[in-house]
Amino acid sequence: MKKVLYLIALIVILGTVVFASDMEYIFERQVGGNEGKLPSEFDYPVCITSDTYGNIYVTDWNNSRVQKFSSEGKFLLEIGNQSSPKLKKPIGIDIDNDNNIYVVDYGNNRVIKYDENGNLILTFGKFGSKDGEFRSPRGIFVDRLKDEVIVADYSNYRIQIFDLDGKFKKAIKCYDPSTKKNYNPRSAARDKSGFTYIVFTRENNIWKINENGEIVLKFGGEGSEPGQFKSPRYINTDNLDNIYVTDYSNNRVQIFTTDGKCRGYFGEKGTEPGKFNNPEGIFVNRKADLYIVDSENNRFQIFRAPEITHLKSLAAWYKTSNDQEELENVYKKIFDIEPDNTEAKKYVLASLVRELENANEDEEIRAAAQKVLTMDNTQEDALKALEQLKEKQIRLEKKKKVRLIIVLVILLIVIIILIMVLKPQKKQKRKDENNKIIMW
Predict the structure, then answer these.
(1) Local structure of 361: helix, strand or coil
(2) Annotation: CATH topology of 26-305
(3) Per-residue confidence at 11, pLDDT binned at 50, 70, 90?
(4) What are the domain boundaries of the chain?
């Protein structure tokens, strides 16, 4: 009973919500909390992203700026309201693999691309309904695998896809053949398999569409039960293909699988750490940590995933980036925590087999083979290596015996020779002695 009470107390203090064994998020820190125009103050922040260095970027809606913070939450830079072109009601934000920043300039119906220091690179879009034009654009998502930019073109009932230079590639209408209606997309995100997830705030649901724009799944519905929404806003995906959605009026974040099943949720209305007052933007980094904009509380909050989730997310990242060395290092750590993890076991075993292949000395080979067989006692390379060592040992023993026999034969020959040499000498000596006696 005491342990249960202690766990409950710990959850309350840390703002931790447990809804699955591997999805336990811990409140780490908040930044902001005061309404204003000074650095680290906000007037309704909306969206958030983070670069490869851990720096954090937040759109500050009513202050018409983007604020940049260090990974520890220290204010670094203000972007967009001090030099041309000036931002007007910035909303969606994301970053590419080179740490360039893409900001949806809502009030000017365009997207502005900056470098990590806030220097202008380019702008694209203007008011209109033609390809590459916008009417009240909202969310933006950079697909870092395909180098594509997805923009939710709200009042044009579509999402638009661009390359990283802002060149129009494709538009997908948010039209539902079953209802014969167009719908307003608030935000969109894409998973590793290429499926796009679109949030429809008014309808309280999410569409999953394929690359052809066909609806393959709908999930959600109005309500407060798990999997239901009250005014969902922004969406993001992680390396493990979990889907994260800010549930605005329910003051929570929900996590879904790619087939639309709710894995769980956390959050409730409040100003304390771990609570929300109308959450908007959400970002998930490569380690599956969550950055959530708590808009009416004028702050953002960071939640850390547990170690095993960190590692699994990193493993998925290194797979896509083809970093084999880092991938194996991560899987070794996963294997230490979850020795029954099939994927981790496969990579650790492959690493041990390679260690066996590179071994030269007999003891190194024997030790490496035994490590392999500890994980898989049927592994052919290891069994073959030990068999070869055994055969080698037998050959060495035979050679030792042959050498010993040769040595013994040589010794015997030497002895025989000595005997043959010494025996005549001894006879001659006796003869000489006898002759001396006679002469005497």
Answers:
(1) coil
(2) Neuraminidase (2.120.10)
(3) very low
(4) 26-305, 323-395
